[in-house]
Amino acid sequence: MTEPETASLEQLLASAGAPGDLAPRVAAALGPEAAARLAADPWLILSVPGVRPEAADGFARSVLSGSAGPEDPRRARAVLGWLLDRAALDGHTAQPADVLCSALGTLGFTDPAAALQAALEEGDVLAFSNAVEDEGEEPAEPSAGGLMISRERYAFAEEGIGEAVQRLLATPEPLGEGWAQLDTSGDRIHGELRDTVGAHGLTLLATAPGIAKTAQIAGFAEAAAAAGVPVAMVGGNAASVRTLNRELGGTELTVLSVQEYLDSLGRGEASGSGTATAEADSQTDSQADSQADSEATAEAASDGVPSSDTTGSGTDVDLEVAEPPAPKFAEPQPGLVVVCAAHQIDAESLAALLDAVPEGMRVLLAGDPAEPGPAGPGQPFRDLMETRSESLLAYTSDGRVPRVRAADSEPHPLTDLRFALREGELPPPENDPEKRLVIVPVRDSGEAVARAVQLAADSIPRTFGLAAEDIQVITIRASGDAGAETLTRALRERLGTEDVRALTAREALGGTWPAAVVVLDGPSSGSLTRALVYGLCGLAERHLSIVHGAGSALPQAVANVPDRPRHTRLPAVLREL
């Protein structure tokens, strides 16, 4: 056996001049056989967080004693995976083949199309045609310009969502006599929602921009339970779970995370590692700070230090894990699964969730497609909302998944602001004697921190009689002069307690608090979009303070940058059902 095959991982890395602290990260990414795997395919090191293609090339030349060439199929497979993993951090489940070919050319492949083909033949990636063929016409030979490339895990997840949509729409059980008498009084729920959920196995609810969006969902779930219908409540992320449990305090309903719901059905392992709740912290900076749109993959290939897809590549490990037995249910039972903040659930998590829903149960996915998508790859709620499919004409006249728009809330300065933001307008603040919306201009990040702390620790508690736990400070980034870490230290010093914590936008979206202080300093301006500003302005129920140091970037983002686009295949999957 050759020396690279018998060398330990530490020896193998040291001989290539790799940093001494790299071994634990390599072992975590590649498993206990990391040394043997790298000896056979040194470009696998690209799956380790922080390793770039040029570093992987140097490592490969060392391991293979100079015989590593730029066109090596192993290199093509690894570099393509690296590009797709970088794209996944920005929410994409797939990438256009021509964009990937451009990036491969930038990274030294003289024949990018051939490299792509080699990777497709050997790697865990799949190609899908975007072409729409006429009936009876022979399919054309696919070209790079007509293909979308996806990792198997994301392709299977989106296929799974499509299959679940068909199953749920085809197999609902009657909800019982009490459903027709379900109480629809008040402004929290209405008859159209009752009738649509009663008629279909899957319903989408677009929550209203108003401050009562959470109360509407909680009220509907309470009414359904009171009508004798078994109700399961699931939150799309940690913030929504906390908010709904607070809203439902004193009732028999408990909101579970996606993972907890899967565990309750004996399907915990089936969820993978990509649940939105678990991913929120790890994906915060990579998405909030990203200023590159989906067209910039080629440029990204040569700029910046990559982050690894924290959902884990883990293909070999996944294959070794036995598929858990499917839960055995008795006869199909009528019931309702209400999913809150569904727009915060990524493709893999939603596929696992819908696949686990027992036969006969109905599902209500409630979310706001105008807010930013989930922390992980995909935007399944938005895709389900926007896609028409001929196969769905059997259920709805317009070929869309059945949907309802929630009743609007009573007039309120925060509601009015959200309605304007959704249309791309940033109106000047109105004179409000009750001070439910306050804009605080600041000059720099230091002043932003000082004013945010003063508002949260003094002004808002004094004016509204709120406790510290009722006031949440939110900022765009985790680190930096006005990041969540800095704000947390300043709040704890001012309040003299360790229990308070500022949140990043990614951690906060999906939830609400009685009062919120949103910090938009200058360095955060490049991350702003209309969807993000709209989402941030929906975090408060009684009072919102915006510490504004982003200058003209704020109105420009609201007017001109709707959201960071995501490439996904779910619309195509739905159209192909």
UniProtKB/TrEMBL annotation:
Coiled coil: none
Region annotated Disordered, chain positions: 267-320
Record-linked SUPFAM superfamilies: P-loop containing nucleoside triphosphate hydrolases
Domain (ATP-dependent RecD2 DNA helicase-like helix-hairpin-helix): residue spans on this chain: 11-93
Biased composition (Polar residues): 305-314
Biased composition, class Low complexity, residue ranges: 278-303
Protein name: Helix-hairpin-helix domain-containing protein
